[in-house]
Amino acid sequence: xxxxxxxxxxxxxxxxxxxxxxxxxxxxxxxxxxxxxxxxxxxxxxxxxxxxxxxxxxxxxxxxxxxxxxxxxxxxxxxxxxxxxxxxxxxxxxxxxxxxxxxxxxxxxxxxxxxxxxxxxxxxxxxxxxxxxxxxx
Length: 137
Prior knowledge:
By secondary structure, this protein is α+β, with helices and mostly antiparallel strands.
């Protein structure tokens, strides 16, 4: 068994665990949403597009307007390209670090979900399976 663990280590296959928040609808406990807690690579890369796709329209619209205004100011020479690039990088870091938190708060406040459990799991699917197995006990 130890050999298999070492072999997996040599192949570079690591199972990174992430925290997931299990949210249930207040009116229907079978309506479950699973949200990752922590840094989001997709939110970092796609920033306000990720926000629009997850229904966080207010924050996504503010970020989009910030992008458009910064782009226009750069185009007209008010801002240098370096400043624009740094601002967009900071915007991406904002979405990467806080996007999931904003999404969870949006589900709790607007969609009337309640947080039920926080799980440490490899994926959303295994977090769901773990939650369903605990419910059926």
